[in-house]
Design a protein that fits this description.
Elements lengths: L2 H9 L22 H4 L4 E8 L2 E5 L5 E2 L4 H6 L6 E8 L2 E7 L15 E4 L1 H4 L5 H19 L10 E4 L4 E4 L7 E2 L4 E9 L5 E7 L10 E4 L6 H13 L3 E12 L4 E10 L11 E8 H8 L12 H10 L3
Parallel strand pairs: 1-5, 10-14
Antiparallel strand pairs: 1-2, 2-3, 2-6, 4-5, 7-8, 8-9, 10-11, 10-12, 11-15, 13-14
Bound molecules: zinc ion.
Length: about 325
């Protein structure tokens, strides 16, 4: 087993969107005539519209991977394509919907529908969920980068959807896909016997989860952890240790998971995001996990993984 495969085996299946078995073919995607190089392979196309992925209607949502004939039937064969990579002798592409077309304008077979990946992810295969997440993230970036951030001129896709270049002859700025880093942290009590969970305004029911927030320009990841915990709960943290990461294309983040140790106990929630935050013992956290909406779903997010790792420590 090579190092990459070994790492992939150890790191995979902790949570959704983290499977990495597609070969991104970084050199191949530089080729403007990539089709010639891939002509002996199968092709699969992932159609993304209004940030949603395409599924078959059924008891369980099943992602639709279109073939070339299906593209023609849906009249989307001329839409912009992004080359995602190669897996199982098949080239995967994402389809970018033109700017003036939304879900309401698409004519789909009656057994197809568009859905938000986040709402169905735990009901689909983790590998397929990772492909859809990758496609959705790159489509989002291409769609929001149609104009140059330097001079405002239109951009065009190059490197098979992995770069966009400004069309102005005096500018020619090249734009690269971006991912917004966010820290997410399980904070333990000074006694290490409790953990700090918060209830976000956006959560349904009584769901508690780990704290999280975007990294700001000019700060380290550890500083972002310390700042976010203090801003959201008033709790002081001095030590933060990196534990793992998860792609989070909702719409363009990567979640960087940390364990942090609190130096203070008092909670003061005057942040806009949290309704409340509390210290939970392991018994209380386990009780929360038994409620329908008490914690994030198992094996779905790095948030739940950080909580479960702490619960399993002796
Ligand atoms: Zn420009």
């Amino acid at each position: 087993m090579n190092a990459e495969a070994g790492w992939s085996r150890i790191m995979s299946q902790r949570f959704y969107f983290d499977k990495n078995v597609i070969n991104r073919s970084t050199l191949l995607r530089q080729d403007n005539h990539i089709g010639r190089q891939l002509k002996n392979m199968g092709q699969k196309f992932i159609f993304v519209c209004d940030g949603k992925n395409l599924f078959y209607v059924g008891d369980k949502p099943k992602p639709v991977f279109l073939d070339k004939r299906a593209l023609a039937e849906l009249k989307i064969e001329n839409y912009e394509r992004i080359f995602l990579g190669v897996a199982d002798n098949t080239a995967f592409y994402a389809i970018v919907t033109p700017v003036n077309i939304s879900i309401g304008d698409t004519i789909l077979p009656s057994n197809h529908y568009f859905e938000d990946l986040r709402t169905v992810a735990t009901n689909i295969e983790p590998l397929e969920a990772s492909y859809l997440a990758y496609a959705k993230a790159l489509v989002f970036w291409n769609e929001k980068s149609r104009f140059c951030g330097i001079c405002g001129s239109p951009t065009t896709s190059q490197k098979n959807g992995h770069e966009r270049i400004c069309s102005s002859d005096v500018c020619r700025q090249v734009h690269f896909p971006r991912t917004d880093p966010a820290v997410i942290m399980l904070v333990t009590h000074p006694t290490a016997k409790k953990c700090l969970l918060g209830r976000n305004r956006r959560f349904k029911g009584m769901r508690f989860s780990t704290l999280a927030g975007f990294v700001e320009p000019g700060e380290t990841l550890e500083q972002a952890v310390i700042r976010e915990v203090f801003e959201e709960t008033g709790v002081l943290v001095s030590k933060a240790t990196y534990r793992g990461s998860q792609p989070w294309p909702f719409p363009a983040s990567i979640m960087l998971g940390f364990r942090a140790e609190a130096d203070s106990e008092e909670i003061k929630c005057d942040d806009d995001e949290l309704i409340e935050a509390r210290w939970f013992t392991k018994e209380e956290t386990l009780a929360l996990s038994k409620l329908e909406d008490g914690l994030p779903p198992s094996n779905f997010s790095i948030s739940r993984w950080l909580i479960d790792v702490w619960l399993n420590e002796s």
